[in-house]
Amino acid sequence: MKFAFAATTLLAGLAAGHISLISPCPRYSSVGTDCPAVPSGQTIDTQMNAPISSVTLGTHEPLCKHTVPWPKPAATWKAGESITVKFNPNAAIHSGGDMEFSISYDGGKTFAVIYQVLRYAFLNGKPSGLTNTAQVLEYTFTLPKELPNSDSAVFAWTWVNASGNREFYMNCADVAITGSTSKSYTAKEVTIANYPGYPTIPEFNGDYDTGINYYTTDAKNVTVSPSGSSSSGGGSSAYSSADSSAGSSSAAAGSDGSGSSSAAAGGGAYSTDAAAPVSSAPAASGSGGSYSTAAADTASSAATATADAGTYATDPAAAASGSDDPRNAQDAASDAAVATTTDAAAGASGAADATGTTGSSDGGECTSGLMRCSGTGYQICNGGKWSSVYSCGVGDTCKGEDGHIYCGWP
Questions:
Q1: CA of 261: how far to CAs of 156, 217, 264, 269, 334, in Å?
Q2: Alpha carbon of 98 to those of 71, 95, 114, 169, 213: distances in Å?
Q3: For 133-189, what is each residue's pLDDT tens digit?
Q4: What is the C-alpha separation between 292 and 135, in angstroms, rounded?
């Protein structure tokens, strides 16, 4: 087995893994913000960017990944008010895809959708080709006023990627909901795909309507409440949806282009007044969009535990990303292909040196973007300093060849 790594792979997210929620802080995250103390018997998760399921690799973890909740809510929200959710800037976004934000009142067994981003997750619109570079790392939207009060609700982010291995991503954060007089909330049930027992959505290959039926016409509604949850084929739903294809919010069943929309699974009326995605990244040349470039200089920062204070502090750009996780090692090939196809990110067309590393100069003991073999693994230069050694995976070793680093059989 042999995976070739160009220097662009760093900036496209090889070492970063994939992507994860950082605010509200998902359970046990090593890169989250304002995280509660990790529950007794649990440990900080340094693989947060990894998917919870890969059809390609035949691996999966429980829904939510971690089933033991935080000992206290990671955030307190008021029903009917706007919130902003944020993602790890150390990311590889696999050309976008479909994602949802959902709420559960039964400990994570049943989720009703609050907000959707269809087709072009983490992007400002349809990309011209494969890309791993995020344009949008924050989303601001209005919570439905119908959300019941609870101090133990579970907020979930789920995502099906457009390119690469067929994966399913899910992070869960424990939250409190206040300010509501509603006893229940009815909306579309969360879509689960590329997970055992659920449909497989193939690579989009440029067709961003691939699998969209699972989010629209084939979806069903579900009612969630602190007293119990139930599924149904209809009912009134009140979630919001951002249709990235139009650059504005639209209903889950799709917009007719005139600003009107129809509800999914039963024709219920729901809000389409959600705010547009908020881009947190500086503008960059290449596509006219806003790109995230913040992660590279601090990719080797470590999370600092302060459990005795009831919280722990982490750097959202830290590379506690699980590059030694077999799922990330196996995905390296597709990430590298995406990187070398489209993402010249930060001028990573620099020349190779004699050891088979490439990059662009910014001073320090090494040049950011350089990659070198170290033992059987490899290191990446971030902000002028070499990272810790990343594993190539079981049975593989790192080699330098023609300006590239690759992991293959010894």
A1: 25, 13, 10, 9, 36
A2: 31, 10, 14, 11, 11
A3: 999 999 999 999 999 999 999 999 999 999 999 999 999 999 999 999 999 999 999
A4: 6
Give the Cα separation of 227 and 149 in Å (integer): 11
- Is the pLDDT reported for residue 100 higher than 80? yes
d(CA 183, CA 179): 12
Count of other CB atoms within 10 angstroms of residue 109: 12
The percentage of residues in the chain with a pLDDT greater than 90, rounded to a whole number, is 49
Residues with Cβ within 8 Å of 15's Cβ and at least 6 positions away in sequence, in order, are: 9, 90, 299, 319, 321, 323, 380, 387, 390
Secondary structure in 3-state letters for 285-307? CCCCCECCCCCHHHCCCCCECCH
**CA distances (Å), 354 to each of 351, 358, 364, in order?**
10, 10, 19
Distance (Å, whole) CA 408 – CA 376: 10
- Amino acid at residue number 113: V
Bridge pairing between strands 240-243 and 112-118: parallel
Mean pLDDT within 42-63: 93
φ, ψ for residue 332 (rounded to 5)? -60, -35
Q: Which residues pair with 117 in a beta bridge?
A: 99, 242
Among 5, 4, 7, 3, smallest CA distance to 349 is for 7
Instruction: Report the side by side order of strands in the sheet with 385-386.
Output: 371-374, 377-382, 385-386
Look over the chain and give the mean of its residue pLDDT values, rounded to a whole number.
71
Phi, psi of 214 (to 5 degrees): -70, -20
Report yes or no: 360 and 348 within 8 Å, Cβ to Cβ. yes
